[in-house]
Please model this.
Amino acid sequence: MEKNIKEILKQVRLIDIRTRRLATDALAGQFHSMFRGRGMDFEEVREYVPGDEVRTIDWNVTARAGRPFIKKYREERELTIVLAVDVSASGDFGSTAHTKREIEAEIACVLALSAVRNNDKVGLVLFSDQIETFVPPRKGRQHVLRIVREVLSCQPKRRGTDVAHALDFVNAVTRRRAMVCVLSDFQSAGDPAHMLSALRRSLRMVRRRHDLVALHVNDPRERNLLQVGLLTMEDAETGEMIEIDTGSAGVRERFAERARERDQRLERALRGESVDTVEVDTSVPYIPVLIALFRSRRGRRR
Model:
């Protein structure tokens, strides 16, 4: 156990060192422009003047006064970021230098450090097919390092994945408007149609109250098989074992086709609920992907 704790602390230090500069340099300003201003507090009602946004007219006050008035808002001074991180068994898979769980931890650290630089609060929800850990939003660098430790050291009690349940939990415990970032491979052993139906319902509920971004973390070997002959594969979440012949071109093609269909179903579900989605491949640097997301969201806000 002592060795495990030392190893976890070593990982935390390495991730902290590796991501601190990324959060400071590569994402400086990008994070602020992506999220800041999403939450607004009502300040006052004042009389309309030419050039004001017509959509801000308060029609009730206008009707009573007989002349147009608008609602004036002020930008919230701080933002709450909630990181919902998938710690199910499928996240332990990795055919590259890092597992999906490790990449999720690094991205969570980058986002958390960026939020701290903006004096924002960060919270954490670790989930499998149940809620494994909840860390309420707070500020500060030590709090961020605690979040990374929680992600790396989590020993989930369950192996499955239920993103919909995690989103419902976030919606229940987060009262003020927040930025919710879901990091998951979105792989579930259950019925795909039922899973996607439940997911869409939960996405819709969260989107009504919060800003939502999905970071879909995947490994290249989950989409394309290498030609290595007979291969025994285990479903990390159910323990089911199957043997396949990767030497067969037909087998490899069917595997790739099923992976494409799975990704397309998920993409349609996320796009159908207007959720910004980032595809994160464990074999490709993720910082350029995050920056592209930040810039695209900033462009839409403008």
